[in-house]
Amino acid sequence: MICLGIESTAHTFGIGIVDSEGNVLANARHTLETETGGIHPIKAAQAHILYYDMLIKSALKDAKLKLENIDLISFSQGPGLGQCLRVGAVAARSLAGMLNIPLIGINHCVAHIEIGKQKTGLTDPVTVYASGANTQIIAYAGEKYRVFGETLDIGIGNFLDNIGRYMGLGFPGGPKIEKLASTGNKYIELPYTVKGMDFSFSGLQNKVRQLINKESNENLCYSVQETVFAMLTESTERALAHIGKNEVLLTGGVGANRRLTAMLKQMCDDRGVKFEVCPRSLSGDNGAMIAWQGIVEFTSGKRQELIETEIDGKWRTDQVNITWIN
Ligand code: AMP
Ligand code: MG
Predict the structure, then answer these.
(1) Per-domain residue ranges for the chain?
(2) Is ligand 1 within 6 A of the CB of residue 285?
(3) What is the four-CA torsion angle of 69, 25, 46, 53, rounded to 10 degrees?
């Protein structure tokens, strides 16, 4: 079976093509970037519309397939920005209708976890899902992907992007902050907010904003990284201890960060827990993870009527009906 998956929750429009064994045959995408300033949802949605045609052609070319070879269409049904989700949903419905093949709406966060499991071989991890809009510590328990810890305000990637914007670094800020941090050498005390297993970034964001131009960007970025990644690592360790799992999976775009990876790895090594990072090409938002999740859910028996494919911008990880884990 071959599934074509469409991702459009936020800044990235992606078309992935995956087979039943999890082979990624294509993973075409376009991510909106800016020199300065952040991204506007309407502009992102407009970019998705503009790139759709080009991306679908390039995905089919990479996979050496024609539309007629596709057996299943899947798309990100939520969570995400309404304007952006709608572009993917319309594209998916029209493709499935035209080809007369099944259509499945996917929870974007769950797709991040499942592609990570598929590619790393982990089977029952505590997942650190650190992306632009979402930051959650998730594990499977009681027939659901439970959220053990999560941000109480903004996602860690958006937090880093905001700091980048205040510093005039452009979007996305995360990679630029990582680069600046590597030459910082002074730790500046910043608010460290972990509540139980949840965490919060907005107080920290305000504090850093006040310190811009008073401290060097290098030292600020260094201190930001040390603080927020320690917060995530503490919550992850607490979740591990609480539910007694022995694997950790790091995924989401912020998973590309070497300092975050090193901190989590050290904590896992100390506890004798296996640690894996989702391969970079599949850890940021992409269509292949949506396609793979389409295969996983279709194979486990999920079917949807057209009327059930309405987007849901606030669809939570722990609301997803899990039919594919025994
Ligand atoms: P996603 O929403 O999963 O596609 O992830 C996008 C987010 O990842 C953006 O907020 C980026 O700033 C962030 N990001 C990408 N690379 C890095 C990096 N090396 N360090 C920190 N954040 C990063
Ligand atoms: Mg994501």
Answers:
(1) 2-112+284-319, 116-281
(2) yes
(3) -40
For residue 72, list its beta bridge partners.
3
Q: Closest ligand 1 atom to the C-alpha of 286?
A: 4
Q: What is the CATH number of domain 2-112+284-319?
A: 3.30.420.40
Q: Is the CB of 132 under 6 A from ligand 1?
A: yes
Homologous superfamily of domain range 116-281: ATPase, nucleotide binding domain (3.30.420.40)
- pTM here is 0.94
For residue 174 and ligand 1, the question of a CB distance below 6 A is answered with yes
Question: pLDDT in tens for each of the 326 residues of the chain?
Answer: 999 999 999 999 999 999 999 999 999 999 988 776 667 889 999 999 999 999 999 999 999 999 999 999 999 999 999 999 999 999 999 999 999 999 999 999 999 999 999 999 999 999 999 998 899 999 999 999 999 999 999 999 999 999 999 999 988 899 999 999 999 999 999 999 999 999 999 999 999 999 999 999 999 999 999 999 999 999 999 999 999 999 999 999 999 999 999 999 999 999 999 999 999 999 999 999 999 999 999 999 999 999 999 999 999 999 999 999 98
Identical fold, 2-112+284-319 and 116-281? yes
Structure tokens at 22: 């999890």
Strand partners, 308: none
Distance from residue 75's CA to the centre of ligand 2 (Å): 13
Give the three-class secondary structure for 112. helix
Q: Is the peptide bond before 279 cis (omega within 30 degrees of 0)?
A: no
